[in-house]
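Letters spell out the chain; backbone shape is given numerically. Take this protein:
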Amino acid sequence: MNDTRDRLRIAVQKSGRLSEASLALLRDAGLAFRTSRDRLFLYGENMPVDVLLVRDDDIPGLLVEGSCELGIVGRNVLDEQRLAGADAPTAATIQPLGFGACRLALAVPDGGAIATIADLDGSRIATSYPALLAGWLRAQGLRADIVVLTGSVEIAPRLGKADAICDLVSSGATLAANQLHELATILHSEAVLARSPHALGAVPTQLIERLCARIAGALSGAGARLLMLQAPRSALAAITQLLPGRERPSVVGLDGYPDDIAVQALCRTTPDWQQLEELKRLGARSVMVLNVERMLA
């Protein structure tokens, strides 16, 4: 690891379910990029932060070897490589990112011989996550042959390669299309921001702190709304009770109208029409609900 590096490198999935959301988050954090000719490298134009577009399975390794300081990767990939690496250094999770939600689940053929978790004992289970599956089997006191596949895991039972599968599930549509149903959940996963286990120099450390603050601000604005209104001062207590706020509302007086106030409130969710109508009934006027793109604490 070169501690004198003056630019930060982030590994991001080049294609797949996390790719677009990861890049969108970095752009929401204020980063602008120029794409390399091979479209595998994004050069940061307004901050010394570059992005490497790689296979998701390669991200933990790039972090461990020090080629990148940060990575956006599924928790399932990070945990699989951590368990498979035994006592080797592993990447550390900084924070969950709230997208790419899925679960690593065991599934079995519809109408088959396996109806309960206990029925898995002595079976063959196909998966791309052998370390996670092996750990779960040990915890359950079960023995099974793990058949490692790198793709098309869901068709293994129809090909006679396995009695069950352990694979990522989002909606469950792929399982249903292959006449499979879930039996148990091994891991709930989502995208996480991870960092290299190596000690970093002052410049990359400062850049990480700055970028993490921006990402937190971008994430905290997701789904939030700013409610603005004017109302009689006497109605403040009742209005406050109606607000789905994160914090106490800001209240200021209106020049020339001693009995009136202006209220601003940060809401966790969009106030519905019933809430808005109730605010109106309490005397609120000039009511506006605005999207919040990003926030800094």
User: Anything to note?
Assistant: The radius of gyration is 25 Å.
